[in-house]
Design a protein that fits this description.
Keywords: Activator, Chromosome, Nucleus, Telomere, Transcription, Transcription regulation, tRNA processing. The protein is an alpha+beta fold. The chain has one helix and two strands; from the N terminus they run ββα. The chain has one domain.
């Protein structure tokens, strides 16, 4: 496995895009403590294990952040949907009160 180069920092990235929102997620992986072979710039087994451990931890953190973000988005969407339906039903109730005791003619009746 080639070692992460000094000029290219190792990291994980993910992006979220919807019609109403975008979000970028990024986790840098600190590879400064991982030794490489001086002859072929390869990671030895111990360094590979350390690198994969860092990668796994960063993946878990990234996944947790994405899950938290998506949970908040779902809660916002649910709240918006509930607010919209409450407004619609309130409007319907208000119309019923206004028309109390009167005959209501539906507009879509084509008789």
């Amino acid at each position: 496995m080639p070692a992460p180069s000094d000029t290219q920092q190792a990291g994980l990235s993910a992006s979220y895009k919807s019609p109403t929102d975008t979000k970028q997620f990024h986790y840098a992986i600190d590879t400064s403590g991982i030794a490489t072979s001086e002859t072929n710039n390869q990671l030895d087994k111990k360094s590979q294990t350390a690198y994969f451990g860092l990668l796994r931890a960063s993946t878990k953190n990234l996944q947790d952040d994405i899950n938290d973000f998506l949970t908040r988005k779902m809660d916002e969407d649910k709240k918006y949907t509930l607010d919209s339906s409450a407004t619609k039903s309130k409007t319907k109730e208000e119309l019923e009160e206004e028309n109390y005791g009167e005959e209501v003619v539906d507009d879509d009746d084509t008789g």
